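Re: the request from the purification team.
They wanted to know what the chain is likely to look like in 3D before they choose a buffer screen. I agreed to run a prediction and write the result into the notebook, where they can find it.
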Amino acid sequence: MTFSTSRAGAAAGPAAGREPAVKPGKTAAGPEFGALAQASILIVDDEPGMRNFLVRTLAPRCKLVDEAADTDQASRKLDSNRYDVVILDNIMPGKNGVDWLAEQRAVGFFADAILITAYADLDTAIQALRAGAADFVLKPFRSNQILNAVARCLDRVRLQRENYVLRYALRASSDRTFLRDNLIGQSAATLRVRETIARVARLPTSVLLTGASGTGKEVAARSIHSLSDRADKPFVPVNCAAIPPEMIEAELFGHIKGAFTGADSGREGLFLYAHGGTLFLDEIGELPLPMQSKLLRVLEDRRVRPVGSEREVPVDLRFIFATNAELQKEVEKGRFRADLFYRLNVMQIHLPLLKDRGDDVQELAAIFMSKLSTQLGMPPVPIDASVRAALASYDWPGNVRELRNLIERTLILGAFPDDFAGPRNDGQSAPADSLAELERRHILGVLKEVNGNREEAARRLGISRKTIDRKCALWDV
């Protein structure tokens, strides 16, 4: 918590319950307050003069400024609107600001609060801190002081959210060097996907991305976001299969303090962190059934209720979903809600297999070779004619992810694996094999490298463990 004051003697205030008017002064022209442009502010003060001053100070700079004359009116506004910052007077008739703030935190209020007061005693400061106030501005104050306090809150929250989203993305992603923001390739299949993305990106429509694992669904999702009018807002990727079922509601919706064992403090969820931007829910077919009904309600109402909260919070989101499962079959088996499927399946974009993308594999291999050699600090390995032929003929069960892993393994070894392609040790070219034989040799070669660890082999190849098991059973390995 910070304390803002215009002079050392500002801590002294009148003995009466009414607080002094704001100190006259010009609005600061020096500091930049760009963060305020998209902010929604709620002012809670029983003095009309103070509310009027704050509205005149903030309204020209902020997206929305609401005011409430008492805590009851403020509570009703919180029930129907979402605010980034609440500016709260402490001494008011009926209920003081600190007590009201503590009550709101307990029922699901996450926005920053700035307490304004003429009384700067230690007890008030401690109570404000415990209630969750982010700043403490002493009366009398100038316009620039309240503007600076609001800007600090907005910057702090932005940095917190960006930090959390980045850390979450790093935990959720097993491939940090993947070309996530570019849909590479000039094949007819890739051009069709790119054209569809360009048509749908600027619309608010939810998008369902389908295709096998490793075909680039997150790449397509990021492309949609970057071409939309939300490009400068957060893009939050969530792998539904990577979150334990017992934690997924708290991760998505957030929770209040004490909502469950270990919830020592309240926290906004990924829905709220993505507010204004795009939420990408990958592996949506893995979402537990109870969460499917909650997601359906969010899609219909655009409101979320944090775990343990009594209040629903409005959110402004663009949803993109992805799955490598056939959701229609999952519906028939009772593992996916039919009403949610029809709600998701407004605009579907299918990502083609790498083997169906023609010469894209050559372009991708060259790009991966360049990027990964720089990242690993190793010299690039030439991609000669025999390697290009093998790249073109291989079936790529792990799609683009498998190709990327092959290039990384090649850089580590200093040459393409003998069981894949390229010149042999005796200088003879590898004979042309069937696609099935190339696939068998490559998978068995990776299994040999990891001493038979199928889980690790699946990770390196970018395919599922079930695929490895099925192939090994077929080959009687």
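For the purification team: The two ends are 63 Å apart (CA to CA).
Please add any questions underneath this entry.
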